[in-house]
Amino acid sequence: MDTSINNKTLQDDIILVINCGSSTVKYKLLELATNQILLKGVFEGIDHKHVKHNYTWLDAEKKQHEETNAISNASYTHCFHNIADIIQTIKCKKPTAVGHRVVHGGEDFIKPTLINPTVIAKIEQLSVLAPLHNAINLQGIRLSITLFPNVPHIAVFDTAFHQTMPDYVYRYPIAESWYTEHDIRKYGFHGTSHQYVAQQAANYLQKPLKTLNLITLHLGNGDSVTAIKHGQCIDTSMGFTPLAGLMMGTRCGDIDPAIPLYMQQTTNMAPEQVSDELNHQSGLLAVAGSLDMREVLKQSNKGNHVSELALNMYCYRIKKYIGSYIALLGRVDAIIFTAGVGENSAEIRSRCCEQLDHLGINIDASLNEQTSHDISEINTRSSPIKLFVIKTNEERQIANEVSAYIKDNMTEER
């Protein structure tokens, strides 16, 4: 593996971003100098009978092409070889660096990091904190290094943006040994998304990010809210795991920690069953019968009581976090909605801002329905706090961080 960063890497700035999930691989090949996506795609249903692969690319004349195909019994290895073959076949520019999304960096990784055997070993050790994610991320790293051995590979960590939280925020009031021996503390997640939309808001406002106080709401299937003071995270809703905080598609969010113990003691549920219930069978799915916010809204508008209950629970918790973070920040320059639900549901945004006028939050009903741009301002002119809908772009943020790392750490070509 080549871990050197040379002049060619800096000049070309063609970044391949890899994002491996439990059954998906998303990838983008970006040319940062021209702000163009040369190739992007997603594999869905990996290790299942049929894998769907959709991808688009630009040819030499900058015409866009799209293709979708089904692959039988494709593994992660097959998918990565497919990516390398496509780059070769369509004759686009080759990556000069590869950026990898890694979910959990623990306390060790607080910024983008050049991948080498020592880093790989440490990410593997951290897999105990994110067993469903880090192992898959590592598989993608190893395959990418095999296929693109002569370029630097950079890890960008979901937890890194939150490592500026003070100790009185990230520590839990539990035995010291739980923290020192078992690494139990608040880590936070979705950091790449929160960081991206915060920077986009700063660009829009034409102010340095370090001067701004923001509340960012990443609302998708997994949800989190982050308080940003002078450009740095000071608190976030997710905790030791992504289970904490807001009510989500299938996750419960904050509940009394005695509940899992009670259920184990009274029903003889195994720990694995309790974990599955809280992570995969709770949230909107448990209350409304669907994890799809569009379906929950549809049923609520038809008068379905449990769907309306689910929406009230969902938005109540968001409003509670908004209020508490305003108290922490004092001055708030903007509140940002992003991710699948945050970007696309005007009704959820409206419900989350209802009756918060006394806190300086005034949403414009008309603007809230017109959010087709990358950044849309949806507050009234008189609103003390600006309200933005910003389309997140985690792959672009990863590419930006990889590029910045390369510029900061460039060595002369050997």
From TrEMBL:
One annotated GO biological process: acetate metabolic process
Keyword Transferase belongs to the record: yes
Keyword Ligase: no
InterPro entries found in the cross-reference section: Ac/propionate_kinase, Aliphatic_acid_kin_short-chain, Aliphatic_acid_kinase_CS, ATPase_NBD
One example GO MF annotation: ATP binding
Keyword line: ATP-binding, Kinase, Nucleotide-binding, Transferase
Coiled coil feature spans: none
Gene3D superfamilies attached to this UniProt entry: 3.30.420.40
NCBIfam families: ackA (TIGR00016)
PANTHER family linked to this entry: ACETATE KINASE, ACETATE KINASE-RELATED
Protein name: Acetate kinase
Lineage: unclassified sequences, metagenomes, ecological metagenomes
